[in-house]
Amino acid sequence: LLGQYVLSEVVESTFKSELERFFEETKILALRRIVKLERELGEEDAKLRQLDERYWLSNVSLSAEKYKGYLDHIKMEKALKEVKLEQERKKVSNLDFYINEVLAIAREVQYLWASADLETKLRIQKTVFPEGLVIRPVKRNYLTSNINPFFRIIPIFTRVMERRKKKKVAIIDDFSLLVAGAGLEPTAFGL
Predict the structure, then answer these.
(1) End-to-end CA, the chain
(2) Which of 50, 85, 95, 116 has a CB 3.0–4.6 Å from the CB of 37, allowing a cystine?
(3) Nearest 5°: phi and psi at 130?
(4) What pTM value is reported for the model?
């Protein structure tokens, strides 16, 4: 079953360029989240300064307990945002690592499965088939229809690239038909 989701050498470079394009778009979104989190961290610092000013410098009476409660809450919010910021920065900085890791898994998924322990096999299965495998035991047919989109496009991509090599341009059977065929609607003349 996993054999059809193995990335062949024939299409790897083209597939990698598509992955890089996808991850570049993801990187742009991550950079926007980083900017937002940095702005929010600045706002948390401003809240801390305001709280200190209210407690130490103003005439507003704020009990030590309330001050400590507000201080702890703001510091906790700030710490959570710092963790999120660090995670986003790692995603952006490790882009090449992620691409190479994804390609390595796609190239070797069948062999990783064969040599893996039970825990790793379950992780591979959950990665390729997010909702699990459904098998008809009598005929050993796989009934699983939900496949990770990344792995689902590998066989299609492979067929398309192989047909291009053979100079067969028609790829109608590989993709869903999005437009109704001619003759299903009346033609409009004179528009």
Answers:
(1) 52
(2) 85
(3) -55, -30
(4) 0.49
